Amino acid sequence: MNNLINSPANLSAFQQLQPWRFTLALLGDYAIIAIALAAGAWALAGSAWLWFSLPVLWIIIASRQHALLVLMHDATHSLAYRQRWLNELVGEVLCGGPVFYSMQSYRRNHLAHHKWMNEPKDPDWARKLKDPEERAWWEFPRKDKSLLYWPRFWLRSIVYQIKAYGEIKDKGAAPLAKTGGLAKWIVRTRLASYVILIGALTYFGLWLEFFLLWMAPALLVLTFMARVRSVAEHFALEHTTFFQGVRNIQYRHRFEQGLWTPHHLGMHLVHHLYAGVPFYRLNELHDTLMQDPTYSAQAQTNDGIFFGRNTVAANMAESGPSEPLWRDDAPAT
Fold this sequence. Notes:
62% of the residues lie in helices and 2% in strands. The chain has 333 residues and is an all-alpha fold. It has a two-stranded parallel sheet with strand order 1-2.
């Protein structure tokens, strides 16, 4: 890999930002959301297809909420725009804000995750494995092979995400009074956007639509998608080496990518190796890395989550670590 990528010229080519591609992805996500919300408003106005269309719309809307968070993830790594103020504004207000995530809080946890991936000091790792009850849901192979596993998995995803959100918020960014000028301005802009939203919902009488078409998919569907993605990134693996602690997914069926790992986040091993590469270059980088014998021999690559010949779901049933993922005497984070 050193000869292929790590020369300054080669690495610089992959790290080159093209902000228009980020902007196009963001606008595309918002366009799909707008169409879905319009369809939902029409269904709520009296369509006989209401109860059939709502679950479909929830999946579509939640998938784009998920996509916005993935774009926030790129902005967390300063990969959205070259101008720092614009990167922070768009990531905080337009990507994380609509789904009620603070990028500043998320950044502190996420950069620690990169620094200490799958170690006790990794806050994501500790959050999943430190508690024995929660840990049982991340240790594979699955002990429960019945169909009841997935409804329980879904309910667990809701509880876990609410707890994780609170933990990230509590341990994330510094209080507003202690933040710098730009950070303080960004936070105030985000809060102002919420005031405008509340005013608009109240003035136009759209609170029912807001809860049914935005909050419901965020709570009931997005949480499930995020948990599946989290499993796909770092679990149902052997965890014997770095390459066996994080995976790539090259989907055979592209609709799965849109649901579980939008904007190429399925190339998660590549992202951990080269966190300074924007999402739209990860596939190209993976193809280049495949020319390296070490990478091609060791990289864990699946072809889908639930659909394919080598799926994450199959790994969940068959693959697991050679020793416990977490020791009760592990040092505190």
